[in-house]
Write a structure and sequence with these properties.
Layout: E1 2-4, E2 13-17, E3 34-39, H1 40-53, E4 59-64, H2 73-85, E5 93-98, H3 100-112, E6 118-123, H4 128-131, E7 136-141, E8 144-151, E9 156-160, H5 169-186, H6 188-197, H7 201-206, H8 210-227, H9 242-252, H10 256-273, H11 280-293, H12 299-302, H13 305-312, E10 323-330, E11 333-339, H14 341-355
Parallel strand pairs: 2-9, 3-4, 3-5, 5-6, 6-9
Antiparallel strand pairs: 1-2, 7-8, 10-11
Bound molecules: ligand LNCXM5UN.
Residues 130-131, 134, 136, 146, 178, 231, 235, 238-239, 242, 316 line the site of the ligand O=C(O)C(=O)C[C@@H](O)[C@H](O)[C@H](O)COP(=O)(O)O.
């Protein structure tokens, strides 16, 4: 399956298929440096396959730290210096092979080194079907996630589903959080269909039919980022579940998409309390479903809401000192609203009580 962005210029393809990496040869630059920056775990698991597909002697490989820890300022500095010592030029190209964190990190290197060079996204996780598209790249600050970043379009997204075969359960649940978010943004029917196909962790871990839902997620994301590339309006809806999600993720270090799923649940409690879309029944139904899939809801029991609230105060959607959250007001209908500290505390205590019932 090939998707293509439909901007006025500088469009890029998104190639989604088994063994998609074989297509990378069409995107390598001749007589220029192509440098692969790859998550060290992905490299370890797929060394032979990677060598087959990227056997060109001119391609250089740099393994980088796995997961969110690569997005630290000090690491960004050391890899920047390393790339500059390799005499890269504005015509050089970086190739990010890994999950969402790798793509964010390498994309940010590409956006900033020499004031911008090309990069290719090769996502290797379910989650990265979301993060690899749309050009958001960045690293973390001590006070919060993705607070240092840029918008920088990739030259191509090569999404090889072969990499999904080695994903651990946590990563599957994490990616599923973003797939679930895209389904909610789309329609009630897509959300129900998803829950019917994956009623438990057993079905989810077999990843059958996952391409159908990745296609749904990619199409949803593409439609939004093409309409609003720089997040002036509708793109903020893609942040559903992220305001609370980023807070709990940063505090507890659980996987991004698991935190987003908990953030979606949290947002439902606020919806209910404001007489928007949700009711106690819809919240209970999601709690039961998430328990069945093994999401770490218990983490809320020991989490310090005051600290989460401090992270929420750093969210990029905020206006002045007011926390802005994506809330659902109808089927596939969303709004960005200010929420007060009291509302956040009440919703948190209520959610904790509900998960322990
Ligand atoms: O692409 C977007 O826009 C999103 O909000 C997608 C999110 O799922 C993704 O996690 C994103 O990186 C979060 O963006 P941020 O601006 O809140 O850091």
């Amino acid at each position: 399956m090939i998707f293509k962005t439909t901007y006025n210029d500088n469009n890029y393809p998104i190639i989604l298929k088994q063994n998609a990496l074989t297509d990378i040869k069409h995107y390598l630059k001749e007589n220029e440096q192509n440098i692969v920056l790859i998550d060290q775990d992905v490299y370890r698991f797929h060394k032979e396959y990677l060598k087959e597909q990227l056997e060109d002697d001119d391609i250089k490989f740099l393994t980088i730290m796995s997961g969110e820890v690569c997005k630290q300022m000090s690491y960004f500095e050391s890899i920047s210096e390393k790339l500059l010592s390799m005499n890269i030029t504005r015509q050089s190209q970086l190739i990010a092979i890994g999950g969402g964190a790798t793509g964010d990190f390498v994309g940010f290197l590409a956006a900033t080194l020499l004031r911008g060079i090309d990069f290719i996204q090769v996502p290797t996780t379910l989650l990265a079907h979301d993060s690899a598209i749309g050009g958001k790249v960045g690293i973390n600050a001590s006070v919060g996630k993705n607070l240092i970043g840029a918008f920088h379009r990739p030259r191509a997204v090569i999404y090889d589903t072969k990499f999904l075969e080695t994903l651990p359960h946590t990563e599957i649940r994490s990616g599923y959080g973003e797939i679930y978010k895209h389904a909610i943004l789309n329609s009630e029917a897509d959300t129900t269909r998803l829950m019917e196909v994956y009623p438990s962790i057993k079905e989810l871990s077999q990843l059958e039919n996952i391409e159908t839902f990745l296609k749904m997620g990619i199409e949803t994301k593409l439609k939004i980022v093409i309409e609003d590339e720089f997040e002036g309006g509708v793109r903020k809806h893609l942040n559903l579940g992220h305001t609370f999600g980023h807070g709990i993720e940063y505090l507890t270090k659980i996987a991004h998409g698991e935190a987003v799923m908990i953030g979606i649940l949290f947002q439902k409690v606020i919806n209910k309390n404001r007489n928007l879309y949700d009711t106690l029944d819809t919240i209970d139904a999601l709690i039961n479903y998430l328990k069945e899939l093994g999401y770490p809801l218990n983490i809320l029991n020991d989490a310090d809401i005051e600290l989460i609230f401090e992270y929420m105060k750093k969210d990029k959607k905020n206006i002045g000192q007011s926390i802005q959250m994506v809330l659902q007001k109808g089927e596939a209908s969303f709004t960005i609203e200010s929420v007060s500290k009291d509302e956040v505390l009440d919703a948190f205590n209520e959610l904790k009580a509900l998960i322990n019932e």
